[in-house]
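Quick start: what a row looks like.
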Amino acid sequence: MSSADLILPAADWWQGPQAKALLSALNGEARFVGGAVRDGLLGRTVNDVDLATPLLPAEVTRRLEAAGFKVIPTGIDHGTVTAVVRGQTFEITTLRRDVSTDGRRATVAFSTDWAEDAQRRDFTINGLFADGEGRVFDFTGGTQDLSPTRIRFIGRAEDRIREDYLRLMRFFRFHAHYGTGPMDAKALTAAAALAPGLAQLSAERVWSELKRLLAAPAPTEVLAAMGQTGVLTQVLPEALWPAALPAGDWSVRLLALLPPGCDLTALSDRLRWSKAELGLLIGMQEAAESEPPHPYGLLRRYGAAVLSGFAVRLARGGSVPQGWQEIAIGWQPRDFPLSGRDLIERGAQPGPDLGRRLAAIEQAWEAGGCVASRDELLAGLA
């Protein structure tokens, strides 16, 4: 049904030449759907533009290629193709209904029923469609949940979660980024009952949702609710509740939730972090928990991660020595100017003692601010 003549605010993402060319190629048999419509109505920036259509993928492909557009079969088994229209990408999916679900994935059949497709989506605010004239179609009551923004499952929360347990994480993540009122009581009850179902999901999917949740502007309330429902225990049993959740990105919030000395390598193995993520967190942990007499060694090893580690140190009730923040902000990487060959040329013998002596010189150089030149260090060896 049309939503009481509700029209999308004017915006290039749906009124621009690329969108108009795409809809023209499909003869108007497609509607914008999901996040683009939601964010457009909320006045937020629209980054990804998805469309739904009653046309089968082969027909979508035929029409778009006939119009000269590149088509990529990005999810053809589930009815999805990606169109590249004059440099802009659009994801187009044939209307679907679920045939069966197992808590991780669904077997789908194609449909021509817009309402049926809307009912298989997760939240009411994600089940909205809009046509090429900007007219909004609401089969789930999503427009009523936009102001204040409520994150409410379509139909019974238990049913939607059992279809895909990742929706548990998505519920909390969406509330952290969009929710402006109390959290939905029915969803919280379902989350508490079904939290163990998260164990059947891949670590990569769970971590992706948790990372995005931690990046929300103010996730404290949501994390508390995750703890109360048992969801946080399922995904991050190591978590402690800090005196204050610090400002910062996902990495600062995550480390602040973990106990000092937490085995980050073991946690990385479980959550499938990337090497870059693990390296960042190790550097932050050392900056947050070690007590070196100066920050230069940390800065040389971990760079900008040290500043984030300082934020965690402060959140845990610690302090940062005078001037460390300024040093870290203005830091430029510096290489240690000596090598073992320099010591050997001055009479040192190769072996373990050489390595220990070189390390001691490097530590003294760091303690002095990493400013001594090679000539100055060599003069000190005489």
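That is the whole record. The beta strands are 2-7, 31-33, 50-53, 70-75, 80-85, 88-94, 96-101, 106-110, 128-130, 135-138. The CA atoms of residues 124 and 142 lie 4 Å apart.
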